[in-house]
Amino acid sequence: MTPLVLVLILLLGVVLVSPLADRFGVPAPVALTVFGAVLALLPDAPTELIEPHLVLPLFLPPLLFAAAQRSSRRDFTRNWTVLLALAVGLVLVTTAVVAVVARWVDPSLTLYAAIALGAVVSPPDPVAATSLAGRLGLPKRLVAVLEGEGLINDALALVIYTTAVSAALTDSFSVADAAGTLAVSVLVGPLVGLAVGWVGRALISRLSDPRAEVGLSLLLPYAAYLGLEELGGSGVLAVVVAGLMLGQGGSDAYTGAGFLAGGTVWRVADWMIGGFAFGLVGFELVRVVLDPGVPTYGVGVATAVCVAAIATRALFVLPLGWVAGRRMRRSAESHGWRESTVVSWAGMRGVVTLATALALPADFPGRPVVLFAAIAVVVVTLVGQGLTLPWLVRALGVRSPEEEQGEINRARAVAAGAALARLDELHADGRIDDEIAEAIRRRYARTVPGLRADLPADVRQRILDVSRVSRHLREAEQAAVLSLRSEGEVSTDAADRVLRDIAARTVRDLYHAG
Which NCBIfam families does the annotation name (predicted)? Predict the structure, then answer.
């Protein structure tokens, strides 16, 4: 069996296994990990699906970009202290604790190899956590924290990883090199992301073909990531900033059809790539376990590292949650020990841990042990925590209030109000007559999507003749919703839901007009 055939089977598994997992209440990442492990046990399965050094640049940019487009400036502003503590403080503490524990269990590991292991297992995976969070109906603030953490913690972890790997291979450490890599990643990265996002938005706004708009959006994350990699830094923050620009303020750059098609394409791509990555975790786990180069004490190192990584997160997050809870009480938002417990248990590792572990050079000291321990952390957290997180959420009674539906209703009301105000202007200017204005006004008043089906044929024809009116109204609606989102009045999810409704009506109007 060739690697290409197995890749196809794994992708087919994403399509078939994920819906079955949802039907039986099993987290899809867990089911796909098991599916990948089963494929690795096939008699003629290849030893390698994808070259290790390609895993990170192939998978990470689109996954980060998709997650960033779903996020918002409001989420980062509200949670910036918590996100900074998790993305910097927790990554540093986890790296240090894991390195100390690994060397204590296996003194033959060099200091730099142990630090590299700590950096590999320190960042949780945003896809695993948020895919479970969305299905469990967690409060949106918790989802924002989990996803925001996963978006930005990779940057520091990858800088530590790169520095430690280089030091382990050369047996020397350069403070200047490490500081330079960190500076490029943290300072230059956002600037590159801004540039890519700005150029991408400008180009998309000048395209009139939805296919070209969506195609360009698919290339942007790779441009941001690889652009900064060429400068010697980690492209994580560049991708995140570019994604925020296209998601937060770039929706108006698309045509209605492009926005609708792009949303669909990105949701499918995010789902397929993330699912494939989890299947790859299972596949590589079996390969590592069956590797005769892993010494027997590798199991002890892996066990100790798993316990250290999980315990460190809990001991860090619970006090942090107490501090955040005191601040949230002053702002009338809830964040107690129950929410902190869920966040501490939702630290599943995924594609970044897998990719960095696989990318270790063949001559890296202690590579078999480090690789085995890293894969073990991914599987233990993904399967163990992934399967028990739903039970924990139910036991603690952590549920989302009907906050998003209220924001959706508000955004729809504001959009309709903006459209009616624009309609009054057009009517007052004499650009549309009384009959058409009243028909459209009735439609918005009732918020019934099918305006044309409710009107006589002659009125429908007259509305087609003045289709420019609908365009003006859609633009007014879209501008109003984008304003709500940019000012933080409604969440990105709520705004995007309404923007998709507006885009769908635009496409429907174009279809009937054609």
Answer: a_cpa1
